């Protein structure tokens, strides 16, 4: 029993917690089956793999900074018939990430852009793809801070490194000259190297005003859209779905939404 406890402690020190907890029962099974040493070792390690993979996924979720966890199964495609469900399911295979392509969700507030972006990010994480999620306003704020502290390269690497970068809420606040230039630098740095999922409430024709520079906006869109899947969502606010069903929301004077 002393040797058994010693082996268990070694497993725990190595971080093999599942194997440590099951060590005694697996030993008894191996003795009963008259297993070889190699068979026993393989069985012991196989008990650890699922737990290790689960822990790795949880670590990736924390590093991704998702605002919440939503899946495609939770999205009501019947409420937004303008969305091509087949295309979304194809994107969920993550083939677009392997090809370093982008996904752009366009539409008014509340139609499910962020839900879909997060759901694709969740799928990417479950497949072992590093993800980082951030709203554009916070992204620009962080890059500006790096610029002011002469640490821009270091801050920029945080957004270049992940294979999938999710930039949310593009268009809600205009960018000043520095912010627009930093955004251009990031898009250029990721061009054909890593994928971006971007959500915006502004049509591409409005990006010149958003960035305060039509030429710079054209340069950004040229790189962003070169290899991109564009999903334009047209419909009612997803958040008002239940109120619309009960007739408690009226979007026009004649009582029609």
Automatic annotation (TrEMBL):
This is IstB domain protein ATP-binding protein. SUPFAM superfamilies: P-loop containing nucleoside triphosphate hydrolases. Residues 99-234 form the AAA+ ATPase domain. It comes from the Bacteria. It holds the Pfam family IstB_IS21. InterPro entries: AAA+_ATPase, ClpA/B, DNAC/IstB-like, IstB, IstB_ATP-bd, P-loop_NTPase. One of its GO terms (molecular function) is ATP binding. One of its GO terms (biological process) is DNA replication. It comes from Thermoanaerobacter wiegelii Rt8.B1. Belongs to the IS21/IS1162 putative ATP-binding protein family. Keywords: ATP-binding, Nucleotide-binding.
């Amino acid at each position: 029993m002393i040797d058994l406890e010693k082996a268990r402690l070694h497993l725990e020190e190595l971080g093999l917690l599942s194997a440590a907890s099951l060590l005694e029962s697996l030993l008894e099974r191996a003795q009963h089956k008259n297993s070889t040493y190699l068979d026993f070792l393989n069985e012991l390690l196989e008990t650890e793999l699922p737990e290790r993979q689960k822990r790795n996924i949880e670590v990736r979720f924390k590093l991704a900074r998702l605002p919440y966890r939503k899946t495609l199964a939770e999205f009501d495609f019947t409420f937004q018939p303008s969305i091509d469900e087949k295309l979304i399911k194809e994107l969920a295979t993550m083939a677009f990430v392997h090809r370093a392509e982008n996904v752009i969700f366009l539409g008014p507030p509340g139609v499910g852009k962020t839900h879909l972006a997060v759901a694709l990010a969740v799928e990417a994480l479950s497949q072992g793809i590093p993800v980082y999620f951030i709203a554009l306003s916070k992204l620009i704020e962080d890059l500006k801070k790096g610029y002011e502290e002469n640490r821009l390269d270091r801050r920029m690497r945080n957004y270049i490194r992940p294979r999938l970068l999710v930039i949310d809420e593009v268009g809600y606040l205009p960018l000043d000259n520095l912010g627009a230039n930093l955004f251009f630098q990031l898009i250029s740095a990721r061009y054909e190297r890593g994928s971006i999922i971007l959500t915006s409430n502004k049509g591409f024709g409005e990006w010149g005003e958003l960035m305060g520079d039509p030429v710079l906006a054209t340069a950004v869109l040229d790189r962003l859209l070169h290899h991109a899947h564009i999903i334009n969502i047209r419909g009612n606010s997803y958040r008002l779905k239940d109120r619309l069903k009960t007739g408690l929301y009226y979007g026009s004077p004649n009582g029609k939404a």
